[in-house]
Design a protein that fits this description.
The protein is mainly alpha-helical. Helix 2 runs antiparallel to helix 10, helix 3 crosses helix 10 and helix 4 runs antiparallel to helix 10.
Length: about 300
């Protein structure tokens, strides 16, 4: 990963300023809501990219951490009636606990065990939500969560700030000695082990960090929707996040966040096409992934910055 330059910082400031000011120029609660969801998807995509993008171990069950964080917020609000702000750190802790539970036995192994375990764990949690419907609300989920911030605009700014902090923290980690080791593990895990590097520790630690931010995003989503339901654990959520990362440029962190924002906006802009919306969206993704295997956002930004220097 290349070092952060002044052009990168200037570009990030301009983008964040546009995102922050957009609801003030177009006064619409609908737009503010869409941008809030965009920012939450940005948190999920960048968190997935940190672990799977850097280590090369694909996580097909990222929705496990997202759903765990969201349901933690739901339980705290509807059963224990705690302060809604307490749900944010608690959701992070619960998501990290799930990452240890699934990651510790599977990340030691080579092959597809981790991907299959994550996929299975998220599916199991989704079914358990339906089986124990007396506590989880079944298919309808849990309702009655309190908003963290009453004003939709202020809540959007808060979520956007969380996204910015998430990307900064994960990017700095990715550019540190820690990130160098994670990319080395992706390149040749056997050589890293032979060099005395505790590969399992670094993989599990990166999964814990990834899960923590995903759980935080899940809690933010729950307090935005004011309800949680089993589809948050679905494989569709995980695949959507993975596609966003590949469009953004895997391993770039910032590219995943920007792609998440653009693709979420694209789905909303295509609503006018009715039943053809999914066709157009799928065709667009196929063209990007087929002709741009390294992604769109990060490679495009690298080319642009090289010309500006």
């Amino acid at each position: 990963m290349r070092r952060i330059s002044l052009i990168d910082i200037a570009g990030a400031i301009v983008l964040v300023a546009i995102l922050a000011l957009a609801p003030m120029f177009v006064s619409s609660n609908y737009l503010t809501g869409v941008l809030t969801v965009c920012a939450i998807y940005g948190i999920w995509a960048s968190s997935w990219d940190f672990m799977s993008g850097l280590t090369g171990r694909e996580n097909f069950g990222h929705s496990l951490f997202i759903g765990a964080g969201a349901y933690t917020a739901g339980f705290l609000a509807t059963i224990w009636s705690t302060n809604p702000w307490l749900s944010l750190p608690t959701a992070v802790g619960v998501a990290i606990a799930f990452s240890l539970l699934v990651g510790f036995p599977t990340l030691r192994l080579r092959g597809p065990y981790f991907a299959l375990a994550m996929l299975s764990a998220s599916a199991i949690l989704q079914r358990l939500c339906l089986i124990f419907w007396e506590y989880t609300g079944g298919e309808e989920g849990l309702y009655g969560l309190d908003p963290l911030i009453r004003s939709p605009l202020h809540y959007y700014w808060f979520v956007l700030a969380v996204l910015v902090i998430t990307v900064i923290v994960l990017t700095l980690l990715a550019q540190s000695h820690w990130g160098l080791l994670l990319r080395a593990i992706r390149g040749d895990e056997a050589t890293c082990q032979a060099a005395g590097i505790n590969v399992t520790f670094y993989k599990i630690a990166s999964l814990m960090i990834s899960a923590g931010f995903a759980g935080l995003g899940g809690a933010l989503y729950a307090h935005y929707q004011l309800q949680v339901s089993p589809p948050l654990f679905s494989v569709v959520v995980s695949i959507t996040v993975i596609i966003m990362v590949y469009v953004g440029g895997i391993g770039s962190i910032y590219g995943a966040a920007v792609a998440a924002i653009l693709l979420t906006l694209l789905t909303e802009m295509l609503r006018g096409f009715g039943e053809y919306r999914l066709w157009i969206y799928t065709l667009t993704l196929m063209l990007i992934l087929f002709f741009l295997p390294n992604g769109l956002i990060a490679p495009l930004w690298r080319r642009l910055t090289e010309r500006l220097r």
